[in-house]
Specification:
about 110 residues, 3-stranded antiparallel sheet
């Protein structure tokens, strides 16, 4: 199934604790319908002392957020969130921003 966001997209969070924050999508977890957004949904992870972290302690990391809680940012309308529709152009499926009609990129292989 085609997703409305891809890794590398700039998105705005539309629901939850971090509503209104923006960030870049680092990863898509397709099996769980989630994505990891830079600087959004930060959680503390407690780590034991190990060779990798000899001191141990707490580190902050970005946790996944559900895809339904993010919207791609539309560069054509001042970086506001937009819904996405698909359109076939030159035999390729493209993501089109509903708000301004801006092409957000191809769907499928990069």
């Amino acid at each position: 199934m085609a997703r409305h966001i891809r890794s590398g997209d700039n998105v705005v969070v539309i629901a939850g604790r971090d509503k209104g924050k923006t960030g870049k999508v680092l990863r898509i977890l397709a099996a769980k319908n989630r994505c990891v957004v830079e600087g959004v949904n930060r959680v503390w992870k407690h780590v034991r002392p190990s060779q990798r972290s000899p001191q141990g302690g707490r580190i902050q990391k970005d946790a996944p957020i559900h895809l339904s809680n993010v919207m791609p940012m539309d560069p054509g309308s001042g970086n506001r969130g937009t819904r996405v529709r698909t359109e076939v152009r030159d035999g390729q499926k493209h993501r089109i921003a509903v708000r301004s009609g801006t092409d957000l990129g191809r769907i499928g292989k990069r």
